[in-house]
Amino acid sequence: MEMEEEMKRTILMIGILISLFFVARCSREPEINSRPPYESPKVTIDKDGNSHIDRLDPGESVVLEFELIIPREEKTDDKKTVTDKYI
């Protein structure tokens, strides 16, 4: 009888410890500032037009933004083409 109560008490204590462990683990705040501040990777373009990205971690991706300027042709009254105006 006494051994059964001791087993019940031990099982209850183990259950309490496990639940406290999960509560403590789930209640902590996420590590928002665990990484250093974002540093933009350095993109270099060689003379052949190939781009190279430095300081890039494995699995990290980079978005490259380009501005594309397309000349718009306009016909003037004297039928000359003007290409110095952009869209």
Please, could you describe this protein's structure?
The chain is an alpha+beta fold and 87 residues long. The protein has a domain at 1-29. It has one helix at 2-27, and strands at 43-45, 51-53, 74-75, 81-82. The longest helix is centred in the first third of the chain and has 26 residues, at 2-27. The radius of gyration is 33 Å and the shape is rod-shaped. 0% of the residues are buried. The mean pLDDT is 70.
Write a brief caption for the model.
This protein is an alpha+beta fold.
> How far is the N terminus from the C terminus?
90 Å
How would you classify the helix and strand content by structural class?
alpha+beta
Question: What's the overall geometry?
Answer: rod-shaped
Question: What is the alpha-carbon Rg in Å?
Answer: 33 Å
| Strands side by side in the biggest sheet | 1-2
Proportion of residues in helical segments: 25-40%
Number of strands: 4
Distinct helical segment count = 1
Give the quaternary arrangement of the chains.
Answer: single chain
Characterize the main sheet.
2 strands, antiparallel
Note the beta-strand portion.
Answer: 5-15%
Average pLDDT for all residues: 70
Poorly predicted runs: none
Q: What is the element string, with H for helices and E for strands?
A: HEEEE
